Amino acid sequence: MQENERLQGSGGMNSVVIVGRTGQDPELKYFESGSVKASFSMAVNRGGSKDNRETDWFNIEVWGRTAEVVGEYLKKGREVAVNGRLNVRKWNDDAGNERDFLSVVATDVKFLGSKRDNEGGGSSFAYSGSQGGGERAPF
Question: Fewest C-beta atoms under 10 Å: which of 23, 43, 50, 124?
Answer without folding.
Answer: 50
